[in-house]
Amino acid sequence: MDSAAPRVTDRAAESVTSQILDLFTGLAGAVDWSFDHWYLLALAVAVTWAASEAVLRRLAERASAERMALELVPVRHFDPGFEEIFRRGVQLARASTSMPWWAPRRAKAVQVRLRADGSSPLRYRIEGPAGGERLLSITPFGPDVTVKRGRPIVDKPRQHTVRAEFILRGKLTSPLRDVPLAPDPLQPLIDAVSDLRTELGDLAEIRLDIQRAPKWALRARRLQLMSAARRKERREAQRAARWLRQDAGGIEDSMGWQLQQLLKDKPGAGGAGRRLVMPPAPRRVEPAEVLGKLADDDHLVRVQLLVMCASNTEGRAQARLAQLQAAFDVFGGRSRWAMRGWRLGPWRVGADQWPSRRSFERRWNLGHCQPPRANWVRLEELTGLLKPPTVHCRMPLLAGDLPTFVHGDPELLLQGIYRGPDARERLVATYAEETLFEVGVGKAGGGKTERALAQAIGWAHAGGGLMFVDPHRDSWPRATTFLAHETLMPRIALIDLNGLGSCPRVSSWNPLGMHHGQARHEVVEAIADAYSSALGWDDATAPRAITILTAALAVLVAVNEAACQAGRPKDQATIFHVRALLTDAAFRKAALAAVAGRLDEETRSWWQVVFPTLPPDAFAVVLNPISRLAANPVTRAFLGQPVGVYNIRTAMDSRMIVWVCPGGNGPTDRLLTALLARDLLRAVRSRRDTPEEQRVPFRPYFDELITLTGASPETIAAMFEDFRKYKCQVHGMTQLLARLPTPVRLSLVQNASTLATTAGSRSAIAPITAEWGDSPSPEQVSTMERFEHYVSMNVRGRRVGPVQLRGPHLDKVFAAQAQPQKVRTLEHAALANADALPLSQVTELVGNQLDRVTAFVREHTPAETGSASASEYE
Question: How far apart are CA 795 and CA 783, in angstroms?
């Protein structure tokens, strides 16, 4: 038994050894077979990889089909803080995981799209999983950013397209440059697309995909970095030890060291031998120092940055990509954005070439995020890209923001000349239906009147009607050269009250005239209000004067109504017959008797009871302004004719171009201006009898508002408040906004669709720049060159500007429309359209008008009641 045991043990050992040998033999055979049939293994690996990739792509495409899009539109004063932007980044990172569990990682991303296609300087759009829409719809930016559902974007194919993918270069663990929020970090990108031209098919788009960092990839990267740092530290330690030994050996082999050792040695003692050199130990590797921004898991994401530029013009897409590449350099520090690929001489191999192009287009079209291994960033590094443009961003003016002026287009209103970032100039305009009221401020000679003239001439050539009121008359000879067209002459009328020349021609207007079918109470109210406004009357300071004038006007208007109904409009009374009605007893008795049945009971009672008790000096305050009007032969001729041609309501409805030039800005001229302004207000309000869709647009232009509003401040203020309802848009120009009466200034600024200013003193400009939030500042505006304007406008329901424009010069903008040889023909036609007659002829007619009116009222006094009616007004 004892001898058998060793034999069993030996057999077992031999069996184990045999098995081990068989195992090694099998492994050697497998290795040999693999070596001989390596292509089969490679094929199996390729098939497995291709199958898994196909499955992943299919799942990713399915997940991408459920993506949503949000458009973010900031207000002009949008100014977020760092904390608000950071919270938005946290939302984006969290929303990237709002996908089904089966979705591949490449589909779990949120995309920030910055797009410039001409519709806006830079559209800001968020695309991501449909499950993250609720999270992303409520932003930390509050009401300063409007979030709306984004529609799918379909681009037309362009002839030239370039693509680029940006990766982080430099030290992997170093952050990007900390770019301040003011000025806006997006400013370089917006500047890069500021010269984009839609008509050339220009397009630029940046897509930033944000994906939460996978834990396993982050651990692997950290392990790799720590291992590399330790190896580097050991190499450094070994190198230092080697140099230390070399230095020590060199010292010991030197003659000086040997002599020193001989002197130190005692007699009979052995040599000291070589000294021991201790190599330096490797320095401890600090994880925080080595890992940098990868040290902490919090708010660490992977990003993919793709850029695509396109154009129908060769070279523009490549130039745009170079501009964007330069813009991304702003974010560079020890780590920077660089284009992926390499350069071979004049050729660059990147996302536009095989094999990268197919991968780029797949990720671009499907929104898949497969970032390079180096693209690790913290959310605070992306602060500049996680928000729309802020108030600190200088936005360019694109063709889509402000339309280009087209001569003869009735939908456009010329505003000025805009010089783009690429030094191209174009005439810009606003939409006529949106330009309700316009205000131009600036010093004398700054170009505000020239700009208004260019706008008025453009509107006239487009078929629009207008009224240009110029107390100085300088605008008329300036405009005639460009209005002297056969198609315009029948629509132009000149009301010139300056009395220039040896035989001036004067038009006619009877404010009391009833031949145009006005309502009596409206005519009385308009004239009484004009007097009160020009003379400073109100119910507290001059109640008796207002009552006397109103009663006198009521009688004369009734006389005129009777004359028109009798078919004798040339027998109408004028404003100058107020004197006769108040001071001539015979005329008063005849007039009151003739219209007794047309007056209301209260008016008749006043003439019967109150008027006889008034002292003669009570009429002076009423008659004095009328006497001043009569003392001027031109004013007397204009207002003293019974059948006035001037009818602003008819001019509005027939698209007339009416040029009104009052004689000056004295007290008499102010009264006349007040009458004209109040009549315009009455005429516009009378359009309530016309359906809104049938009201013809009309544009009054008021030059020198200080002069005009001095005569009738409440009337001008009411125009800026009421005219919009009746499709009458007012344009006003003034040197000083502060000198306007308070009601006019408040109504004007409140309702202005367009606000413009030229250079001037800081105190004069400050009220305008204050409306813009002092951006630009008064200092910037005051140093502008002549004919330069800062203008804010309404376009498609939103404010554009203030933007700097150059005022249009008539000789350049309308050079093709200049007809200097037809100016004299135009002047004759304009006076003829206004039925202007020689002053001497009109003066004789006006002098005989009282006799005609007296004869008419006597003829129309009822015979049976004539004596009784006359006695009532003794």
Answer: 27
